[in-house]
Amino acid sequence: MNAPLIDPFARAITYLRVSVTDRCDFRCVYCMSENMQFLPKKELLTLEELDRMCSTFIDLGVKKLRITGGEPLVRRDIMTFFQGMSRHLDSGALEELTLTTNGSQLSRFAEPLYAAGVRRVNISLDTLNEEKFARVTRWGSLVQVLKGVDAALAAGLKVKINAVALKDFNEDELITMTQWCAERDISLTWIEVMPMGDLGNEDRVGQYWALTDLRKQLAQHYTLTELTERTGGPARYVRLEETGQKIGFITPLTHNFCESCNRVRLTCTGDLYLCLGQEDMADLRAPLRNYPNDNAPLQDAIRAAIGIKPKGHDFDYSRQKADGQVTRHMSHTGG
Ligand code: SAM
Ligand code: SF4
Question: Counting ligands in written order, which one lies closest to the CA of residue 193?
Fold first, then answer.
């Protein structure tokens, strides 16, 4: 029996987010630059390596796996990986297998995902206006994503929409998006825009719409009941009494959520980031590749990495510049 992963602040690490590719079929303005340079293929963990890596984390007590990217569903043969992970659901070692997706490929993959044991998906959608959608994703098509949402619901997947709150962009859609989700029994989570990646062309401070303000606006239309449930992550939830639906707020910038953090993030190259907002990381690809038939060095490297998990992050917009900024792109670490 392996001892569970406990970090220096007595937090049990039971949640792994895995970025399976840095590539994407969109170029969202807050996430990527238009001419992104992607990693050479040989840098990426193969699907077999991803399987071995995730299985090792599961052996060490990880109960929840979220697959992300880049856009996870553009990785070739990614369904093979999901199908492989379903054995851990069958054995009971893994409690949940989920993904975060932009929805562009869901009309193809919703059913196979369900068949592999996925029951919930997070779909990122910042606007219901076609022209605005094209503007914020640069390359995306709203129609295709809405087809993906329908396919996910039809396949029996529980859908959560994640929307990045952007000042002067989707402020005016707060109520329309809430209603649209309510009609489909979809919960909606708002995310504060984070100072990730290359700020060169984008004014991240100007884009910042504080969720405290968003929440006040919501309270003018609905009765909000605070929910005590926490997921160990940065989200807090309220229920709208009029619709019964759950609304989440991910506020890394206005609240500190680090004390209950239960998660770590693996990049598609096998780097393990211990905190979304800090540079602390460990290379797990070397012990994985150097010892193809022995998992002990990989397990040791994972334990050593958990031993350096920092207490928290330092994001702060309060001084009107993006303090605590981390230069890597969200698509690299995985959102
Ligand atoms: N491509 C998938 C998608 O869009 O859902 C998965 C990866 S994406 C990096 C994961 C999440 O990160 C998305 O919900 C996206 O909106 C969010 N995200 C990307 N850049 C962000 C930023 N600078 N601030 C806040 N959220 C961001
Ligand atoms: Fe792609 Fe998701 Fe980043 Fe948008 S947020 S560019 S969909 S990885």
Answer: 1
